[in-house]
TrEMBL record, chains A, B:
GO molecular function: acid phosphatase activity; nutrient reservoir activity
Name of protein: Stem 28 kDa glycoprotein
Similarity remark: Belongs to the APS1/VSP family.
InterPro entries in the cross-refs: Acid_phosphat_B-like, Acid_phosphatase_pln, APS1/VSP, HAD-like_sf, HAD_sf
Gene3D superfamilies reported in the protein's UniProt record: HAD superfamily/HAD-like
UniProt keyword list: Glycoprotein, Signal, Storage protein
Protein species of origin: Populus tomentosa
Signal peptide, first to last residue: 1-20
Organism taxonomic ancestry: Eukaryota, Viridiplantae, Streptophyta, Embryophyta, Tracheophyta
Function: May function as somatic storage protein during early seedling development.
């Protein structure tokens, strides 16, 4: 049965992806290059959420506040399904390949910067109850969730964390969570399997009103000033990875649920 | 019939994306948040190409020379199907929304930088005959193709080009094509519908051996020195968009076929 379903799935994918775009006659011209299936020219409903997600992940779409209503189900399926996990695995594998080939000084100053939410810990249990980002962000409700300390490990990130430690790279957590969430964050990290770290940097009130790019760039610069070398930097938001002192290489994990500038 | 196929397609997608990952038991835990469909835990063959493409488009995978052999069909279907077109449309719409809201000086110095290959012109007829990037790059064969002058307009880019001109933004083409390809490129652009431009910048031999990031950053800096303001910058390669003088905002079009550093 599962095999039959998969066969139908791939037949359907083949048919769907080989159809021309409804936007003009141009892709039909392209289709001359390969044989045609189906009648072509039909819009495939729901596909725009795929394009929306790609635009988000590539930083083409910025400054958005909620997932489009019509994409709530799409984002939910993505986050709960295997694709999110597989997308993450390809990226963390790439990250470790970089770490492994990088010439480490081995003096204890080689570090890797991890963002926390949706990078190290998953708040999916919260977002699953709040429309996967389709509901407007509610800081009261979200902070209540944070204080439960029940965020889950992101399994591919946990693997990367362990592998980095095993080759002598130290880990710094750099999060937009506030200083008053230090204890619960620290306990949550430990319960999720992240037992040691060089530093856990939370956003102090002095950064209130500043962007994540500014806050994170400033804190990374401080790390470098202390002699640390940022071998890699991983986050789910482009604001974790843009700005200054970004590290030797940056890695963007998927997150179609929210945007932080 | 088409409707039935689509129904089967979405049923199959729903089933496939709601399955747990084969990598561990972790996603099954997540599935408690929503009802389960299917038997779960089965790997969906071919899905890794989706992850590969996402990693490429997000600049997580860099420095690769060919599309993985097992992804040739996947990339071919993507490039020839409607998804490539729809992904591009979301990005060019976003680009124009940016241009429209940007406060233009209106002194003829507001420009938009377009890369050429796979941004303005499509070489898909060539790549369709060369494994969609799965064959190693052959500069002789590719340059022969360039000299035919038969590259096609990318329809969403052409629309963006026209809309930008209509609000008074001038267009600069900045391409990695070499100076000796000026005439054929110029004719090809015109035949494809791009009739006017402020500048067409090709790679002079003085940049030989330099990266695209260096070449394009240098040329953009020269434009700024001449008083131009780069309102936007669009390309299919991250090397079109990284570096310096990148412009007020950058836009990354899809290209899973090749990588230029």
């Amino acid at each position: 049965m599962a095999s039959l379903i998969l066969q139908i799935f791939f037949l359907a994918v083949t048919l769907a992806t080989s159809q021309g775009s409804p936007l003009s006659h141009y892709p039909l011209q392209m289709h001359l290059l390969r044989s045609k299936w189906g009648s072509g020219g039909h819009h495939v409903p729901g596909m725009s959420c795929l394009s929306w997600r790609l635009a988000v992940e590539t930083n083409n779409k910025i400054g958005w506040s909620t997932v489009p209503e019509e994409c709530e189900d799409y984002v939910g399926h993505y986050m709960l399904g295997s694709q999110y996990r597989e997308d993450s695995a390809v990226i963390t594998d790439e990250a470790f390949a970089h770490a492994k080939t990088f010439k480490l000084a081995g003096d204890g100053k080689d570090i890797w910067v991890f963002d926390v939410d949706e990078t190290t810990l998953s708040n999916l249990p919260y977002y699953a109850k709040h429309g996967f980002g389709a509901e407007p962000y509610n800081s009261t409700a979200f902070n209540q969730w944070v204080f439960t300390g029940e965020a889950l490990a992101l399994p591919e990130s946990l693997k990367l964390y362990r592998k980095l430690l095993s080759i002598g790279i130290k880990v710094v957590f750099l999060t937009g969570r506030s200083e008053d969430q230090r204890a619960v964050t620290s306990n949550n990290l430990k319960n999720a399997g992240y037992h040691i770290w060089e530093k856990l940097i939370l956003k102090s009130s002095s950064y209130s009103g500043k962007t994540a790019v500014f806050y994170k760039s400033s804190e990374r610069a401080k790390l470098e000033k202390k002699g640390y070398r940022i071998i890699g930097n991983i986050g789910d938001q482009w604001s974790d990875l843009l700005g200054t002192s970004v590290g030797n290489r940056t890695f963007k994990l998927p997150d179609p649920m929210y945007y932080i500038s």
